[in-house]
Give the backbone structure.
Amino acid sequence: MNDNTRGILFMVLAMAVLIGSDMVVKRLAEGMPLFEVICLRHIVMTLCLGAMAWRERSFVRKLGGGARALVALRTLGEVGIVMFYMLALTMMPMGTATALFQLQPLAVTLAAAVFLSQPIGPRRIAVIAVGFSGVLLIVPPGALGPGQGALGPGAFFVLLAVVCVCLRDISTRALGPGVPAPVLAFLASAALLLVSFIAMQIRGGWVPVSPSELGGIGLGAALLMAGYLAMVHAMRTGDIAVIAPFRYVSLVFGLLGGFVLFGEVPRPAMLLGGAIIVASGMYTFLRERQLRRAEHHRR
């Protein structure tokens, strides 16, 4: 088995277990306050990630003022992704939320052109426009307004989560490799723990947790941790341009999980919109790979 094949398998595994963690949270939030679920999950996550970072001696590096600001922005983005996306899952079908969330690579490409001055030609602009047209099939115009049922506010929160993905990825790109990944993950988890604890207190405080719910929280944390580790292995193995497009298998897992566990039947227009977004994102990855190869041959 070559490196690319291993990387693809790690990426598919990462997407499967991350969607599994989302499904656990969605199920638990039916009987528990969402912020309590997130808080308890990130107690486990913060302890595990802190132990990993300590074992790798990742906390010994000192950061300058500029790096600290970028780390703060990245952490803010991570918090927004989880909080907004988890809120969305409590308001809309899982398959719909997963399909909308596939906008993230296209949105990051556009954000990199705007904030990092990365070149973006007419082809990329056209692909981004096509990808965003898929959103209109998933969420028709007017469906984001109040009084439009669960789809409206849920879709709005997914789009806010996509904006937070842009904030996280752009600040990570600007930060560079100077800060170890375990430290970044630990800081994000600790921030989520703090924010969810405060939100939980505002919304009414703790409620009793049954043994089965506590087991579900442990399962969700274990799946999230496994997904993080699998993602790290995927990104460190093989050609990223080959492996990255397999992030889109999360749409398959999201649709399947929504149907099996929650009885969600996707609309044909939603499936078409999701397919358009995925195809646009895959074209972006493949085009980037082609350009890198051409640049390499010119050197």
